[in-house]
Amino acid sequence: MDGLELFGSARQRHKQPVQDAPVVELPKKGRSFLKGFLTNLSNPKAIICFGSVFSLFVGNDVGELEREGLFLLIVGETFAWFTLVAAIFALPWIRDKYQRTAKWVDGVAGVMFAGFGTHLIISR
To answer: Does the pTM exceed 0.85?
Structure first.
């Protein structure tokens, strides 16, 4: 064996194996909406947010028709909002940025919800 042969075989031993990207299985058609809907229903932040917005605008002097109208408005706004969020976060570059800053985004959102909740408690 000459020196070049030894060097070549040593280089081959230290090569890292190339890994294929993981295969992501997409959910069945229509399942994504249901899964997202149930996830948001189980998310206390979303329930508190929309419940507190509803309670701010609905007082004792608001009639039944107005209450139902506000409820439908909030439901429509919720669907529109989460559709927009899903469309934006489906973009790969947005998803990558969010994954890098998720802790900060969650922290800021937590502070905002705490402030909003404190305001609700103090104002009642």
So the answer is: no
Q: How many CB atoms lie within 10 A of CB 15?
A: 7
Mean model confidence pLDDT for the chain: 77
107 pLDDT higher than 70: yes
**Contact status, residue 74 vs residue 51, Cβ threshold 8 Å:** no
d(CA 11, CA 4): 11
Give burial (CB, 10 Å; 0-12/13-18/19+) of 116.
middle
Compute the distance between CA of residue 110 and CA of residue 5 in angstroms, rounded to an integer. Answer: 61
| Helix (H), strand (E), coil (C) string for the chain | CCHHHHHHHHHHHCCCCCCCCCCCCCCCCCHHHHHHHHHHHCCHHHHHHHHHHHHHHCCCCCCHHHHHHHHHHHHHHHHHHHHHHHHHHCCHHHHHHHHHHHHHHHHHHHHHHHHHHHHHHHHC
Q: Please write the tens of the pLDDT for every residue from 4-19.
A: 555 555 555 555 555 6
